[in-house]
């Protein structure tokens, strides 16, 4: 056996030993992310059943929208069936159309690319920054200088002839991207910004909530996100007109009338049901506590991993407050063999762990999409392992 594989085995054992100082012995599987229901969840869902308001009309949906707007500081929040649907509609409203291009990180969950494809648009992949795990705006600027030009009809990719209709920064694991640089580059190239804040409810860039920087932003309340509605999502915007449009086309574009079925454009059946919103209202009441628990778990991990050579815990970028949705171990060097052995050992030790997503350009349906140099994405894909991040893993603080 080579000395490097001995070192690898020692490193993996040491990581597990240190994780156990935070998580205990883990006699049963410690899941990657489990929701915590410690408030009014049952009570509100029972109210839906008792009143009969379970579907896409009902007071919890509007209440959830108000709570979201208040928490994030967005003027409007529109609740929908999931985060992918929210992104689909947000991109449409930003002007993404058939045969346009949408700039997005190559290191993201599939929903970001799929939402663009649902609009008939083509994802255009951007590399990420080591510091934020999100779009590297300075390098995007350099890339646009090579492939794009400003014409009266907008920013055109002169290699493909397609219009670049939007840029979608995504806040990976809840860590905000460098929004000031990204907004500067987007403004310079006249590209609308739609934030994929699916993972970053409770994350702030310079004290402003993520998802509120672009013309539109979206959140997800999937079962594994910081706050869950079972499945759900929301569109955020400060623009009254866009909010009205979003509400209209996510409710089948039905014109208001006491009994007539008149739909005045192509709409979608994307409204969040009241049952799901009831769960969300109860979850949002507990959001400050959930965020506090997640921050303390991340802190405990960072301390446990301190001074261990070979690996570190990813911590929030400067000027940012992260929700620490998913904690990530980052190996010092890209090494798929070590990453996979670590994943196998962690899962065998009852510590549920996952690699980061397969980069989008490696998936069959997105293989031929335009892209910039993606070397940091490729590097990070061989270095990141997500570890258990449920808020229930730490005790509430008093
Ligand atoms: C979770 C997520 C979404 C939305 O997912 P849904 O399951 O449709 O709610 C979108 N983008 C990213 C990056 C996500 O992590």
- Spell the H/E element sequence: HHHEHEHEHEEEHEEEEEHHHEEEHEHE
CATH architecture of the largest domain, please?
A: 3-Layer(aba) Sandwich
Indicate the percent of residues in helices: 25-40%
Q: What is the distance, rounded to the nearest whole angstrom, between the alpha carbons of the first and last residues?
A: 51 Å
Shape: globular
Small-molecule binders: pyridoxal-5'-phosphate
Q: Mean pLDDT, nearest integer?
A: 97
Spatial ordering of strands, largest sheet: 1-11-10-7
Structural class call reads alpha+beta
The CATH class assignment of the largest domain is Alpha Beta
Strand content: 15-25%
Number of domains: 2
**Number of E-type strands:** 16
The low-confidence parts are none
CATH superfamily annotation of the largest domain? Type I PLP-dependent aspartate aminotransferase-like (Major domain)
Number of helices: 12
Largest sheet: 4 strands, mixed
Describe the structure.
With 398 residues, the chain is of the alpha+beta class. It folds into two domains: 3-36 and 287-393, Aspartate Aminotransferase, domain 1, CATH 3.90.1150; 41-285, Type I PLP-dependent aspartate aminotransferase-like (Major domain) (Aspartate Aminotransferase, domain 2), CATH 3.40.640.10. The protein has twelve helices and 16 strands. The protein has helices spanning 3-23, 41-51, 59-72, 83-93, 110-118, 137-147, 179-188, 240-249, 274-285, 287-305, 336-348, 375-381; strands spanning 76-80, 101-105, 122-126, 148-151, 154-157, 164-167, 194-196, 204-205, 208-209, 216-220, 233-237, 311-313, 320-321, 327-331, 354-355, 384-387. The strands form five sheets. A four-stranded mixed sheet has the order 1-11-10-7. The chain has a four-stranded antiparallel sheet with strand order 12-14-16-15. Helix 5 (110-118) links the parallel strand 2 (101-105) and strand 3 (122-126). The radius of gyration is 22 Å and the shape is globular. The mean pLDDT is 97. It binds pyridoxal-5'-phosphate.
